[in-house]
Amino acid sequence: MLRLLGCLCILAASAGMSYSCSQGLKRELRQTELLLDLYTAVEGEITYNRCPLPELFRYLAQHTQQPYQELLREAAGRMEDNREADIPALWKEVCQQLGAQLGLAQDAYQILLRMGEVFSYSSLEAALQLLQLGRNRLSVIVESRYAQLAGKRRLYCCLCYMTGLFSMILLW
Asked: What are phi and psi of 104, to 5 degrees?
């Protein structure tokens, strides 16, 4: 009876691990999509609004979701506190401080770090081109992640259940 109960617990743990891994993939994809939306919003605001950066960040923070809302508020606060700071360095510092909360893959995180370079250009056209380049890269990342999602979920399910099955065989 105890062996059967142990096998059921192992099976439940395997199912939970499989579900957890699948949710992690979905969460990472969702954060990348939100970053793509942030790039689009920044591009639109820079094109049409042309307000100072702290005001721009505070406005965008009101219209974005977490964790980017916190990132924008923190960046706006630091820019107001230190008006002489190097903006790309300040942006990287804020991103590195909140990096664990973002839940991004390494390639998407690097694109987020490069967003700070956009704010240092004095030419609007150069900044918009850099934003468009980042947005295009993020679009490619999102499309490739969607293509890989089903295969990775299946792989995680198979690995978790096979590990559980192997553990049950050893237990029995």
From this structure: -100, 155
